[in-house]
Amino acid sequence: MVGRVLVVDDYQPWVRLIRSMLPEAWELQVIAEASDGREAVQKAIELQPDLILLDIGLPALNGIEAARQIRQHNPKARILFVSEQRSPDVVREALTTGSGYVVKSCAPRELLPAIKTVLEGGRFVSASVQGQKLTDSKIELEPSKAKIVENRHELNCYPDQATFVAGFARFVGTTLENGSAIVVLARESHRLGIVQKLKS
After folding, report:
1. Taking the model in full, what pTM does it have?
2. Does any domain span residue 152?
């Protein structure tokens, strides 16, 4: 049986990356894409996918509200949020409707284990949000445990320069929105691209 996947994100290079990461051996098939929350709800109701990979920052209707509406029509829908948002409050809110949460910049190493966990009925939360590895479906993200680890080193892989610039700009933007300072050492072409993305 082929697992049918709906990918919801308004950034096409990211959607292409997701497609490239889904291994054929798992018999996963992207049956549709949506670029905003309303379209996601419509396609989820119409197509009844086995798994929905859902961003939070979507046009028209945000991902969390879209997930609520999808749940009204399909309470058993398996929804895996994939977002660069790291706020514990956002993650907790997402997990009220979703089966898991993957931080986009951690997706190269976490997305496939997250998909496997969610399809098997478990819950997955990115280690960078939880502060520890969490794949046990019995463990909830509680307010007292929700934290971002400040001292950590991460390796992220990007398929091309455009995806790197966009991903890194999202990381910088999220860091600044959280009130933290950030120092970026980058070559000029990357720096200009990051600044341009932040401005837009």
Report:
1. 0.66
2. no
DSSP letters for 155-181: ----SSHHHHHHHHHHHHHHHHHTT--
- Domain contains 154: no
Confidence of residue 150 (pLDDT cuts 50, 70, 90): very low
> How many domains are there within the chain?
2
Residue 16 structural domain: 3-130
Supply the pLDDT for residue 53: 97
Q: How many CA atoms within 13 Å lie on the side-chain side of 177? A: 11
Whether 65 maps to a domain, the answer reads: yes
Contact at 8 Å (CB) between 31 and 59? no
Tens-place pLDDT, residues 99-123: 999 999 889 889 999 999 999 999 9
Rounded Cα distance between 106 and 151, Å, is 16
Mean pLDDT of 10-37: 87
Could you tell me if 38 and 54 are in contact, meaning their C-beta atoms sit under 8 angstroms apart? no
Decide if 136 contacts 122 (C-beta within 8 A): yes
Q: Distance between CA 133 and CA 129 in Å, rounded? A: 9
